[in-house]
Amino acid sequence: MLANNMPSSSSSEASANISSMLMNKGNRLNMIGDPANKLEASSSSISRQEIVVELERRGINASLFGELSIDQLGDMLRAITRIIIANGPGKKRQISSHSGGRKNLALSSLDKKILRGLLSSKGKVSSITLSKETGAPLSTVQRRRKRLEANFLETSYLPRVKSLGWRVAMVFVSTQGGTAIEVGKELLSWKKAVIRVSRATGLETTDIAAEVIFYENEDLLNIIERVRAITGVRNLFWVEVIDTLGKNNQCFEFILDKL
């Protein structure tokens, strides 16, 4: 655990101070203007403790970052503030132009029945059982199952790293100069730290989302520093995945109903 060497002060007073710095002539966070830019403009008058208080007010355990500089803490606060603003009331989520759509889907009622059978059984149902349940010939079920599994289903067989004593974090990376793909490939080459890497959009400062594993806090900080050193990386922030609360399989049923 990293040491927390930051002095204590009145939480409410510090929060009030930094909140006033994030206002522009009386405009609050949900009005026009980027609070992250306002923070950057007034960074010289913001103390380390005030940044820490504001991070903790946003649910971040600042005691884990005692070794970070005030600039690094400020970067973290700016990134989190942008997320809050981007997802605040009245904001519309941007949709990726690469997200596809339903216009090219051609799923018959039989396809949907097979998909429901595969999803409800987590892929363990046999084609013979599906053939009996749908009333379709076995050869037809086998052919369609192969196509559906190839195009519409994801399968995985991965260890539960938390059960093995490891921890998981999501690292969100902002790149520059059109280097997102190169940065992503570099991260994927880290065989001992990175589980998966995805292109991302919807938040102006995020191009890459990487899922990483680590054992101690120091390991994560080392990963963060390695990511920062990659050519083309402009900024980053991260969150640790504490626990999976559950999975909602009814969401997939909803998707099938809409097809």
Automatic annotation (TrEMBL):
Which branch of life, at top level?
Answer: Archaea
What InterPro entries does its record include? WH-like_DNA-bd_sf (IPR036388)
Checking Gene3D superfamilies in the record gives:
Winged helix-like DNA-binding domain superfamily/Winged helix DNA-binding domain
Q: What is this protein called?
A: Transcriptional regulator
Q: From which organism does this entry originate?
A: Candidatus Nitrososphaera evergladensis SR1
Q: Give the taxonomic lineage as stored in the record.
A: Archaea, Nitrososphaerota, Nitrososphaeria, Nitrososphaerales, Nitrososphaeraceae
